[in-house]
Fold this protein.
Amino acid sequence: MALLQIQNLHTYYGHVHALKGLDIEVEEGEIVSLIGANGAGKTTTLRTISGLISPREGRISLSGEDITETPAHRIVEAGISHAPEGREIFSTLTVNENLNMGAYVLGGDTDTMEKNRQRVFELFPRLEERKNQLGGTLSGGEQQMLTIGRALMARPTILMLDEPSLGLAPMLVKAIFNTIREINGRGVTVLLVEQNARAALKIADRAYVLETGRIVLSDSASKLLRDERVRKAYLGEQ
C-alpha cells in the first residue's frame, strides 16, 4: 500500500477543469517529482492534496485512510505539510515566530516545538543566525529556507514542496536541492513540484509529467531524464 495514493482526481476552478483524472502514488521514503509546463496542474495537485481546494471527484488516501474531505488543518495533523509556491511567509513576524506558526498542530507542546526548531536550525544554520529578524527583511533564499523550515515544524511524514528553487540564484538552488536530499535522508517522504525539471529529476526516485491536468508520462526519474520527449519539452534539448 502506497503512503499517499491519489485516484481519479478531478479538480475545478469554477467551470475550468484543472485536474482531469489524476492517478499518483508516493511510497514511504521516496522523493517523487511532478514536472510540467506552467498551467499543467502541478500546484493545483498539491493544493488539492493539502485540502486547500476540494476535488469534485476522486479519492486521496494517506496510509490507506481516505482524507479527501478532510479539512486542511487536519491534513497537517495527519502528517502532510505543504511549503507553498511564492514562499508566503509572514513578513511582519520574526523567523522564530514564523516557525512557531508551523508548529500549531503541537498544541502548545513547547518541548517538542523546541526540538523541532533545533532540527530546522541544523538544516538551515542561517535561520538561527536570523531568528529574531523579521521575515520580510530576509533574502529570497533565506525566505525559502524559512518556508521549508516552517513546514517541517509539524514533523510531517510527507513534505510537499512547490517550486522551491523559484527566483533563486544557481548556487542557492544547488543548496536547496541538497537540503531536500538531506530532509529525505532523515526519513521524510517528499512530493516535489519544480519548474527546474533537470534538477528535480536528478534528486527524485520517480516522477510524473503533467500536461493540461493529465498525467502523460510516469517512470523512474533516471529513465525520464533520458526520455527524448522529456528532454525536448522540459530540458531544453533538441
